[in-house]
Specification:
single chain, about 220 residues, mainly alpha, two-stranded antiparallel sheet, 7 helices, 2 strands, about 5% strand
Length: about 220
């Protein structure tokens, strides 16, 4: 039966509506099945139910078109197959981009938290450099000849080196500041916190009140 006759029987808008239902149903079912199949810990029979749900949506639409016109039914079946195949093929790339966006948002949040802690540690140490009374009471915290203070300065340099800044060993991409490899900036800040606590303990200054980052100015 020629296409004008198909449109005369089913109506153009009805055929377009059935085509949309078939395409979305088949593509969605294939995408979910591919996603759950790749899941390291999928729910029991999740792939089966994904396929079943797709068939439950697509089959009635194809059958409805076939009852009105065999040619329309064949066309809808072809749309369903093409949509399912395309979705099944492209879903991994879509999921990969989705994971990359999630990793970028997570890296941005981790960087912001680590940067805040880094600033607090530096402000805490600067008291011993900028406050004359503390400089006199705790000179060891400025003297790199002491092992704990030397370790503190090394931890400071390491944390600063690992701070993700565009153009200096890191990158600030769409997902925020990240590093491609190497030690974590957050881990370096944690080691800096430990090093400062050890240096303060060795100098007898561990009981000093901790000031806010702005108080060292």
């Amino acid at each position: 039966m020629p296409f004008p006759a198909i449109f005369a029987v089913t109506g153009l808008w009805q055929l377009l509506a059935l085509t949309l239902v078939v395409a979305v149903g088949a593509a969605g079912s294939a995408a979910l099945a591919r996603k759950h199949h790749a899941d390291p810990a999928p729910l029991p029979d999740s792939v089966f139910w994904d396929v079943f749900a797709g068939v439950a949506v697509v089959a009635p639409a194809v059958l409805l078109g076939a009852l009105a016109s065999p040619a329309a039914g064949l066309m809808l079946a072809a749309v369903a197959i093409a949509s399912a195949v395309a979705s099944f093929r492209w879903t991994p790339a879509f999921l990969c981009r989705q994971r990359m966006r999630q990793d970028g948002r997570r890296a941005t949040a981790e960087y912001a938290a680590a940067a805040a802690r880094h600033g607090e540690v530096l402000a805490r140490w600067q008291r011993y450099e900028l406050d004359p009374a503390l400089c006199i009471d705790y000179p060891q915290l400025s003297d790199a000849r002491h092992p704990e203070t030397s370790a503190l300065f090394k931890a400071m340099r390491r944390a600063e080196l690992l701070r993700p800044v565009a153009g200096r060993g890191g990158s600030a991409g769409p997902g925020g500041p990240t590093r491609a490899d190497g030690p974590s900036y957050s881990d370096a800040v944690a080691r800096l916190e430990t090093a400062l606590a050890e240096a303060e303990r060795s100098a007898g200054a561990l009981g000093q009140p901790r000031l806010s980052p702005g108080s060292a100015q």
